Each structure stands twice: as C-alpha cells, then as structure tokens.
Amino acid sequence: MSDSGSATIDTQETFIRQRHAKYFAMCLKVLPRSMATLDTQRMTLVYFAVSGLDLLNSLALIESRRAAIIDWVYAMQVLPDKDNPGLNAQACGFRPGSSVGAPYNPKCEAQACLKHDSGHLAMSFTALSVLAVLGDDFSRVNRQAIVQSMRALQSDSGEFFATADKNESDVRFLYCACVVSHLIKDWSGVNKATAVAYIKSRQTYDGSFAAAPGLEGHAGYTFLCVASLYLMDQLDEVYTKVEQDRIIRWCIMRQQTGFTGRPGKLVDSCYSFWVGGTLKILGAYDLVDRTCLRGFLLSTQSTTTGGLAKSPDTLAGVGEPDVLPLDAAINMSERASQHAASLKF
C-alpha cells in the first residue's frame, strides 16, 4: 500500500517516508499556534526540517525555495560593526531569528550593529548545517568573525557560553563549537586542551557523561562529549580501547525496545539518535538490535500528518533503505557532510 494512500497503514511494518517528507516541508511553511513561543529558535526549526528532508532524500520538495532559504540564513548572520568591528566582536555568528529587528541583509553587507543583537553558538551550528545541507559554498560566511567570537565565548575551564552575555554554558555549546570549527575548517577558536579537560571532568563512574561533575550520566551528554572528542581528533588520545568499551557497554545497556536516556527511565525515540550516534562514532553500532529498534521507531509514526514522536531523523541510524546514511558526529547526512568537506577556503 502506498504511504500516501489508505489510512489503514500498518505503522509497525511500513516506513511512511513520503508522509514524513511532506510533514517537514509543511513545517517550513506554517506551524501551529502552540509553537509561537519557539519563534526565538526559528533557525533550529529550519535546521530540523531541512535536515530531515535531506535524510529522507526529499530536498526536491523545497528546490524552488532553496535560494530563498539560503538567503534567509545569511540574513541572520551577525556581522562586525561597519565602523568599529571590535564593538560587537564577541557577539558575531548567527542569530536565531528576526525578532531583534535587524535589517534583512542576505548579501551580508557591513552595517552598524544593533544593541542586544547577538549571535548564538547553537544557532551558528544549525545555520551552517542548513547551508551545508542545501549545497551552499559558505562564500558569505564571515569565518574570521565567528572564530573571534568563539574565542571570547570559551572560559579558562574549557566550557563554552552560548552568547556574549555569558548567562548559559554546558557541554551542548562545546559540541556546537566543535561542529562549527569542523564545518568552517578553522579550529583556532577552540582551546582543545582545556576543552578536553572539561569533558573528562563530566565522566561518571559507569563510563557515561553528565551535565556537571557529580551528576547522573545521561545519553545526550554522553553523545555530546564523545562526538566533541571525536571531532577534535582526541577520542583515541584521551581514552584507551578498554575505556571506550566502558562507554559502549553503558550505551548498549540503554536498549530495551528503543533506548532510554538513563537507567530506570522509559524508552524515548530521541535517544535512538543520542545513543545510536554515540555507538556509531565508537564503531559499535553493530551491537544494536536493529529489528527491535526499528519496530519501536515505526510505532512512533503519525499516520495523520507524518513525523515521528519527539525526533525528526532517528531512522537514519537504523539502516532504513529510504533514508540517507548519517554522519553521526555532526548530525547531518553523509552527502551533506561530504559537500562541506569539499569546500575550499
């Protein structure tokens, strides 16, 4: 039965790829009223939708809008002040949306900076990822400004703050800094030595990683730490095979049908990426019961609108034939990752 046909589809057996693709395309046009509070994270929503379409090999659905989306992403770039570049040097990067009221500037021309206008490290990660997925050449990315900003966002302890006002920091933003550095091929904005020390301080007795020293290990933070070490080419330098096997063991023990994020918790489809991605980086994804995991993920599908409960692209790690292979470390398709790697600066 076609996935665009009868509503009597057995979602335990059928991956309704076309319906999921239409769901992501719809999210780029309109979102329900209940999501209005996420307007300040619009760049992240665009990233989820565009990356989801890419993994479903369905970017053709937005081909007519590709250039417009790329222009919009560039218009969200916070650039150095045209008269005094040092005035907002710590705030450069990409903002999450247009709510600050900055002029629409897709050509990235030098302008006077606005008070309170600031890039956000997570939005720089998602913005560059969208550009890579859409095949952009990064020609309008101010790499130097992003690197200079990242230097200012890293503390002496190795952590990264999300924004210039330094009111939020944890492993998430260290990971974002690593992906940004990887994509723009410039690591001069990251002090790797202090970053590695920061990551090691988050490891728990059972091999997993936590948000802070002394807290319980969590699958999300475990992925962020392992992926960051991998992107910095430090994973094998920091942890021996035996030590990596401890991390693998903790991850494998998270599988029930799907994966849990911590011991004693319920399965949640988002952890199919957090745990699955970690195992893929560590070269241990073959230990996963893929049949069991696939059945769980298919059960989370919405046959009405498309989409998977709580996670847009988890089937990429299952080896689903209608889904492109995933570069787990940077959370984008291998196709987009290879495009980014081919760019010359």
From TrEMBL:
<comment type="similarity">
    <text>Belongs to the protein prenyltransferase subunit beta family.</text>
</comment>
<keyword id="KW-0637">Prenyltransferase</keyword>
<dbReference type="InterPro" id="IPR001330">
    <property type="entry name" value="Prenyltrans"/>
</dbReference>
<keyword id="KW-0677">Repeat</keyword>
<dbReference type="Pfam" id="PF00432">
    <property type="entry name" value="Prenyltrans"/>
</dbReference>
<dbReference type="InterPro" id="IPR008930">
    <property type="entry name" value="Terpenoid_cyclase/PrenylTrfase"/>
</dbReference>
<keyword id="KW-0479">Metal-binding</keyword>
<feature type="domain" description="Prenyltransferase alpha-alpha toroid">
    <location>
        <begin position="16"/>
        <end position="314"/>
    </location>
</feature>
<keyword id="KW-0862">Zinc</keyword>
<protein>
    <submittedName>
        <fullName>Geranylgeranyltransferase beta subunit</fullName>
    </submittedName>
</protein>
<keyword id="KW-0808">Transferase</keyword>
<dbReference type="GO" id="GO:0004662">
    <property type="term" value="F:CAAX-protein geranylgeranyltransferase activity"/>
</dbReference>
<dbReference type="GO" id="GO:0005953">
    <property type="term" value="C:CAAX-protein geranylgeranyltransferase complex"/>
</dbReference>
<dbReference type="GO" id="GO:0046872">
    <property type="term" value="F:metal ion binding"/>
</dbReference>
<dbReference type="InterPro" id="IPR045089">
    <property type="entry name" value="PGGT1B-like"/>
</dbReference>
